[in-house]
Amino acid sequence: MPRINDVGGQDGFGPVVEELDEPPFHADWEAHVMAMNRALIGQGVYNLDEFRDAVERTMSHESSYYENWFRAIQTLLKERGVV
What we know:
Low-confidence stretches: none
Number of strands: 0
Protein name: Nitrile hydratase
Strand content: under 5%
InterPro entries: CN_hydtase_beta-like_N, CN_hydtase_beta_C, Elect_transpt_acc-like_dom_sf
Helix content: 40-55%
Number of helices: 3
Distance between the termini: 31 Å
Shape: globular
Domain Nitrile hydratase beta subunit-like N-terminal: 1-83
Largest sheet: none
């Protein structure tokens, strides 16, 4: 089964709707998730490929982009015994 980061991507999700003047984050917590991810990668807790894999393994199409990121971070921290 293809995964979202495989070369060529996935079909069937419809067109991307671009929001004019869209802010980089819709809520403060989204910026915190991004900062947390960068810090954990920077500290060597996991790497970018491991993070991408975790996003793909735990992704829910009903969740937002950063909700999926947060779920992946939680998964990696549990798998590595950090929490």
